[in-house]
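Quick one, tokens below:
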């Protein structure tokens, strides 16, 4: 099977998982509009992929220019049918030593990993919902949304918040009869720049090879699954049992609340 959406706006497309997935989508036949903070990396991506790609430099922390960014990119590319939100930062915080905690960095991590995704979703939804053909939003989450890492409270909490938002958004759109489908891809640790704070040699060898992850993520998305979980924290069976029971309990609560 192939991914149903053929013009993908990839936020965070110039490094890490975003770059890997952008190039995987191009190889599989989609056009990718690459979005990244650094203009030179966006330009490199477009030069490499020619007419299969275009790009736009934008920092997702820039809320002041968000509406202008969305208007510009959707006007230039009215055929966008998928917005793929993939960007993030990760740090270590030890609250047993509160005087050493960088609260500004903690809150920036929460904002980048969660709040910016909510803002982008809210701004792109009117465009996606206005189209007569199916559209989608894909979120890159994390397995740490389900089982947090003790030394990464900001990252774990931001991904847990994103997972909750994704569940609620999916339910709301489906209940409204929207043609916009919501996907969430949950990676294990993947060998990318995300872990550079650990030191490049150590960080970029942590986890699953990027190419392997991208193949598995694409396979899951192409299958039509709305929640693509790759790997697990601890035994696979136990981890997936937590995921499945949580999802079914959420759906039970949603059904009960709609009936009232």
């Amino acid at each position: 099977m192939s991914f149903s959406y053929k013009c993908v706006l990839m936020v965070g497309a110039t490094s890490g998982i975003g770059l890997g997935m952008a190039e995987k989508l191009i190889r599989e036949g989609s056009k990718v509009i690459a979005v990244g903070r650094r203009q030179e990396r966006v330009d490199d991506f477009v030069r490499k992929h020619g007419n299969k790609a275009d790009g736009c430099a934008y920092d997702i922390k820039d809320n002041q220019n968000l509406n202008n960014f969305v208007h510009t990119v959707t006007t230039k590319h009215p055929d966008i049918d998928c917005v793929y939100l993939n960007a993030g930062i990760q740090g270590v915080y030890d609250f047993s030593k509160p005087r050493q905690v960088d609260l500004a960095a903690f809150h920036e991590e929460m904002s980048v990993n969660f709040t910016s995704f909510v803002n982008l979703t809210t701004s792109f939804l009117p465009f996606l919902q206005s189209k007569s053909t199916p559209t989608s939003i894909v979120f890159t989450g994390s397995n740490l949304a389900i089982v947090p890492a003790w030394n990464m409270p900001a990252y774990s909490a931001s991904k847990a918040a994103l997972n909750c938002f994704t569940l609620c958004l999916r339910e709301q759109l489906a209940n409204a009869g929207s043609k916009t489908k919501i996907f969430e891809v949950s990676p294990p640790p993947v060998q990318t720049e995300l872990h550079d704070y650990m030191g490049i040699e150590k960080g970029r060898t942590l986890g699953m090879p990027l190419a392997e992850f991208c193949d598995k993520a694409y396979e899951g998305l192409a299958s039509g699954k709305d929640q693509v979980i790759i790997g697990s924290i601890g035994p696979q069976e136990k981890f997936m049992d937590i995921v499945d029971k949580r999802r079914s309990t959420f759906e039970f609560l949603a059904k009960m609340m709609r009936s009232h």
